[in-house]
Amino acid sequence: MREVHYKQVVEAVKEIAIKANYELPEDVELAYQTAIKREEAELGREVLQQILLNIKSAREERMAYCQDTGVAVVFVEIGQEVHVVGGSLEDAINEGVRKAYTEGYLRASMVYDPVFERKNTKDNTPAVIHYRIVPGDRLRLVFAPKGAGSENTSRLAMLKPADGWEGVKRFVLETVKLAGPNACPPFTVGVGIGGTFEYCALLAKKALFRPVGDRNPDPVGRRMEEELMEEVNKIGWGPMGFGGTVTAVDVKVELYPCHIASLPVAVNIQCHASRHAEIEL
Ligand code: SF4
Asked: Is 226 exposed, middle or buried (0-12, 13-18, 19+ CB in 10 A)?
């Protein structure tokens, strides 16, 4: 059994939390560069230029790309042959988040309790952590800070199987229409179809981490992505909602089998601050 020390996890989480907040991934930057050529509205092109300038400034000046540094969402893949020593994995992840948000000057946005007092926890903990056991002896961590503007416009529906593809499409497009400028477009739209109520939402979130431009290897998923991408960009929100032809730089669909009587669909809207960073230990 391979061992990974608690402190290694703390430092790794701190590193990727800061990186994710300061540096947008290259594929995302490239997507905005390409989008300028596609955007028909002059104001839309100007907004995309500002977004690219913001990416450059944040990276070079080592500061957060957006003031909303988000909920600390962490996806963990734990090889079944790896053992964390020196403390619990969950504590290590939260300590890494704490260090990143305090030492990296990132805004603390978490409040407890969520309804009445809404008192800031001051260090952006606790993280929202999703674990998956996989073969092997590695520990893979993906950090994806999620701002509230776009998360708040995300939706889930338990459709009837008879609603079919038309029902799914209607729900996705309605969600993008409702999101509008409040969710800071251009978006990456993550769509989960199938599974159960909670698993469908997770599929939609995970869909956001696939590189921009990458298509679902399943021909059905691929067709859905292409059709949705075209329809979403006809909505006309454009960059930052000023109107235009680039409302989304990508739509990603993740499919999973579901119950004979169900058709769950979840749409996770990702704003232009499409942030994630990963590390393997
Ligand atoms: S929705 Fe995204 S870009 Fe807009 S404020 Fe929130 S994190 Fe920043």
From this structure: middle
What residues does each domain of the chain span? 2-20+65-146, 149-274
Q: Give 180-226 pLDDT, tens digit per residue.
A: 999 999 999 999 999 999 999 999 999 999 999 999 999 999 999 99
Residue 187 Cα to ligand 1 midpoint, Å, equals: 11
**28-39: pLDDT as tens digits:** 999 999 999 999
Q: Cβ distance 2 to 81 under 8 Å?
A: yes
CA distances from 215 to 34, 102, 221, 274 (A): 17, 37, 8, 17
The atom number, within ligand 1, closest to the CA of 145 reads 7
pTM: 0.96
- Sheet of 139-146, strand order: 128-134, 71-79, 139-146, 277-280
Q: Which residues line ligand 1 (CB under 6 A)?
A: 66, 68, 147, 149-150, 183-184, 271-273
| CA 182 to ligand 1: nearest atom | 1
Protein residue closest via CA to atom 7 of ligand 1: 147
Protein residue with its CA nearest to atom 1 in ligand 1: 149
> Which atom, in ligand 1's list, is nearest to the CA of 147?
7
Query: Residue 152 and residue 138: Cα distance in Å, rounded?
Result: 34
